[in-house]
TrEMBL record:
<comment type="similarity">
    <text>Belongs to the Maf family. YhdE subfamily.</text>
</comment>
<protein>
    <recommendedName>
        <fullName>dTTP/UTP pyrophosphatase</fullName>
        <ecNumber>3.6.1.9</ecNumber>
    </recommendedName>
</protein>
<dbReference type="InterPro" id="IPR003697">
    <property type="entry name" value="Maf-like"/>
</dbReference>
<keyword id="KW-0963">Cytoplasm</keyword>
<keyword id="KW-0378">Hydrolase</keyword>
<feature type="site" description="Important for substrate specificity">
    <location>
        <position position="75"/>
    </location>
</feature>
<feature type="site" description="Important for substrate specificity">
    <location>
        <position position="17"/>
    </location>
</feature>
<dbReference type="InterPro" id="IPR029001">
    <property type="entry name" value="ITPase-like_fam"/>
</dbReference>
<comment type="function">
    <text>Nucleoside triphosphate pyrophosphatase that hydrolyzes dTTP and UTP. May have a dual role in cell division arrest and in preventing the incorporation of modified nucleotides into cellular nucleic acids.</text>
</comment>
<dbReference type="Pfam" id="PF02545">
    <property type="entry name" value="Maf"/>
</dbReference>
<feature type="active site" description="Proton acceptor">
    <location>
        <position position="74"/>
    </location>
</feature>
<keyword id="KW-0546">Nucleotide metabolism</keyword>
<feature type="site" description="Important for substrate specificity">
    <location>
        <position position="158"/>
    </location>
</feature>
Amino acid sequence: MTTSGATALVLASSSPRRRELLGRLGVEPTRIASPDIDETPLPGENPRAYALRLAQEKARAVPLAAGEIVLAGDTTVAVGRRILSKAETPEEQRAMLRLISGRRHQCISSVCVIDANGHARARLSQTIVIFKPLSTAEIEAYVACGEGLGKAGGYAIQGAAEALIRRIDGSHSGVMGLPLYETRALLRAAGMPLG
């Protein structure tokens, strides 16, 4: 695992999923920091700009020691230009699942890495996800399992929701929360010795 020296990595996220995905690259953060930023979309802000801005703001919100690199990410779910926030209640989750039932939506994952010299780089990954038409019973069963609460769009692709997805076009890891292709490129550009 990559953990030391001039390439000490700070993960600006409390998401266990992002930490797990970093592990697939052979990277273990030296520390975890949860940035506290306002995630309210700006008036007229489109989903791509929103996702990119949040990743950059999260990365900049974390104080770094000498030699540290910070990585932050954001995953935004959108139907057209409408940004779906994190489902905080079962009622919000039901409404989101009804909205995305049988239609395509976008999962936009952004990653921002600030290297040890303070240089910021960011990339976006856009994935199209299409759920099957969901019956009321399927929505209720999924809500009851509890895994979609606190998740953008009201679902977690790595769990039971995956069986409800008819098609995905793009990055599976991006929908999970951290697009690995883009993340690997950014970490390498920041000086991390990845294979």
